[in-house]
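Hey forum,

I'm writing up a methods section and want to include a predicted complex as supplementary material. The small molecule is zinc ion. I've pasted the protein sequence and the SMILES. Can someone with a working setup run it? I'll credit the forum in the acknowledgements.
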Amino acid sequence: MEILIFILGLIIGSFLNVCIYRIPKNKSIINPPSTCGSCGEKLGFLDLVPLLSYIFLKGKCRHCGERISLRYPLVEIITGLIFLYIYIINGLNLLLLKFFVQASILIVVSFIDLEYQIIPDKIVAFALITGITLNIFTKDVGAFSSLLGLAVGGGTLLIIAIISGGAMGGGDIKLMGAMGAFLGLRAAVLALLISFILGGIIGLLLIVFKIKSRKDYIPFGPFLALGTIIAMLFYDEIIIWYLL
Ligand SMILES: [Zn+2]
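Reply by user p_vandermeer:
Happy to help. Structure tokens for the complex are below, copy them as they are.
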């Protein structure tokens, strides 16, 4: 079962790569079939096997020899590992589906934000609708908690954006609102705290090691994604650890 879940993660990861590449360009994620981003040649089945294609093609297009971005195998492995981990701690139930969907959305958002410094509204709207819908079925987050999560998640970042004069982007505010609806109030607060701590530490390290200067833009979306995934998977553990 673990192997099946990991393979499922690799396949979904391969689809997430399509989303990461096409959504910012406003292209359909279903049609047309995948082509090489460099020569435009249509990719066959053997070019599209997650992870293995990249290894056998040695990271190059079989038609034009252009290098394939390392992002492709990276997204596939990350998705595979996150899916596997969610399955191990959660088991096979309805919550698994919700966590898979939420993790997938966050992986797409993170890589798009890293590459294009945007968080597309389409993805946020999709996250909000699926989050609320899935919560109705999984029943682990009530409607009121979901609504408060949305208000507090989005509201906190909106206040920071106003106070700081725009250091927080509109995309971040909307994303955290949608994730707050997914998580419910208490986990949303935890997700925010973790995002700020991680963003603070990593932002500081990037500046100390002169990888980024103080004036550089550092996308916050990936930190929100990381904070949300950690809060989603480890809420109970973190609260118990804190109280002890
Ligand atoms: Zn090519």
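Some notes you might quote in the supplement: The chain has two domains: 1-92, 119-244. The chain has nine helices and no strands.
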